[in-house]
## 1
Amino acid sequence: MSTARGCRPAPGAQRGFTLLEVLVALAIVAISLAAGLRAAGVLTDNAGRLADVTAAQWCADNQLTAMRLARAFPGVGDADFRCEQLGRSYEGKLVTRPTPNPNFRRVDAVVLDEAGRVIVSISTVLGRL
């Protein structure tokens, strides 16, 4: 077997990575770790948001169910309510509006966060019994 003179390392030369190769590898690892940490943070935020939306939906459902169980035809207007779920207190509004058929009312249960932004809004139609 014959090899070219420049392809074989000199007898006593050390083999290994150059400083530049090590720095590039470290930069790639650092970027990957930073992306992983960001993704983990976003997942944590989403889990908290999901818990808030779920608890707010329970509050809205409870208010609409209470109206159905009362078996009273609701009047047109707005009403505020408070609800506690999962150790948090939520503020909300029940918005009752007429429909084209006078025997029905549209009721929207809107749950708000501390800043007054809508977390969840659920609508239903209640009829005259």
Note: Residues 34 and 64 are 45 Å apart (CA to CA).
## 2
Amino acid sequence: MARIDAFLKLGLAQGCSDVHLAVGVPPMLRMNGDLMPIKFRQLSDTELETYIIEILTAKQRERLEEGHDLDFSYVGEESGRFRVNVFRKETGIGAVFRHIPGTVPTLDELNVPQILKKFCDYHQGMVLVTGSTGTGKSTTLAAMIDYLNETRKLNIISLEDPIEFVHVSKNCQVIQREVGTHVRSFADGVRSAMREDPDVILVGELRDAETISMAMTAAETGHLVLGTLHTTGAVKTIDRIIDALPGELREQTKGFLSMSLKAVVTQVLVKTPDGRGRRAVLEILINNRAISKLITTDQTHQIPSQLQTGKSAGMQILDQALLDAIQSKAIDPDDAIRFATDKKKFQRFVTDTEIVRVLDAGGG
């Protein structure tokens, strides 16, 4: 057993989501959003590097020595499966291990709106799950793939960097390919996937113009494309895609989004009232004629009002979703207010006097 597994086993026993290892501090655990040190000595550069080198392949060691960051999956003998990022900083080497559960959670277990199941029933177009790092985008997408795997008979090709949840083919054939191991890039993976008779293509990250362009092509040619972006709202997601492509393609991109973008789900993770867990709260955009027109006429700033009026169709703006979850006692209002746009609406629910004081002073 690799020595680093001892820290990972301890983290799992504590129920953490991430294990952080860095020079000059003891190992730290991400517990319900907060970073907490464990009772251990500060790690030296030499000590930590030997721990990490022990779990790397020869190729990974070579890349690390060349100055590259590493992203890969690690499965310990007794510690489970992790997504790993290894990097160098001023004081030496560092690593973050994100725990990946052994079983894929269902959409019902995630307590997300039932409309996400409808998104899985689309036969073509693009559905995006967005949010900042660590908000559970990969988990939501994995649950959507699992729902497809249970309910339809499809060829699903998943492109990930690295592979996180491992899917067993049920009613569907699920092919998981890892960027850097099986394909050179996300864009190459999408290009290859379109020659492999896919019904659904999952793109782990729409990280550059080429990948976005290839994903758009796939969505326009009869495939359902699921993907992620590191954006914090429906409007920012649409604007990011438009801005990512060359100016001469702006009108073409807006045309694609107005016709082929089916839905945007933006999620945050908010602490539960007892502080022992976190729950996903979602903003949901479902494309319709009104939103399509706002996209093509450069009026995306008016989309939030459409989300508010489209509640009966399954749409919701994040602030309202947060308020609903507070009123049903599903989340902690003191944590929820961090994610709210109009924080004044949340003031009457907050119990932390310091937060109230800051709001009264016009801050936040």
Note: The mean pLDDT is 95.
## 3
Amino acid sequence: MKLELRNAAFSYEKGKPLLENISLTAYSGEAWAILGKNGIGKTTLLRCLLGFRRWTSGGLYLDGKPADPASAGGRRFWRRAAYVPQAGRQAFPCTVEENVLLGRGAYLGLFGQPGRRDIEAAEKAMAMAGVLGIRGKNCGEISGGQLQMTLIARALASEPELLIMDEPETGLDFRNQLMVLGLIRKLAHERNLLVIFNTHYPEHALDTADRTLLFLENGRALSGPTEEVLTGENMRAAFGVEVVRAEAEYRGKTLVSLIPAGFREEGENG
């Protein structure tokens, strides 16, 4: 899959763009992180990608063709793409397995019932996300980490090429954060999915994402290889803070942390 945003823009109010001239090209086998300060437009970008909001101008292309998930032909999009919402905002009075089977909706008719093929796809997705062992538990009785993995399994049950995730690790403990990030890497690099996720953690982008879209101000954004985008200078411009980079070696891997050290002085540019 080749996904493109071509000069994409979005405004809630005319003349006041939230997103402006956003362009990027992403491919299967890549993990993309989206970073920026609160209210800058990260979630709005995902909602536009998914067709929940209409681009003001420009738009989304898949394999060189315009894609509109909200159009009459949107079913074709949803057979290729899946969405993982934030777990903390969800409440499901159903079992884990029933929840995951909802991910097969693009393949079932309005009143269709899951068949053997759908159940097999759901079981494969639950195994991949590590929730097969709790398939019979009620979603209201499992932990936040288990619910997040259930939502990921639901998305994977549709067997997508594109996976869009809204802050998948937010609110989780260290262990569950590592599980989510590890799964993102596996899905992109071993399963050849294109994974796009919002995050508040630069360290998670540096650890997991091949490429990053970093929002600056006035609807502008930078995109490119994560190490090249998440520099001290760019983080300073994006968040208005001074950043210190710290590195540590662990089992042959360099771990990187970007630590906010202080506010940028008033009147400084960039």
Note: Residues 174-189 form the longest helix (16 residues).
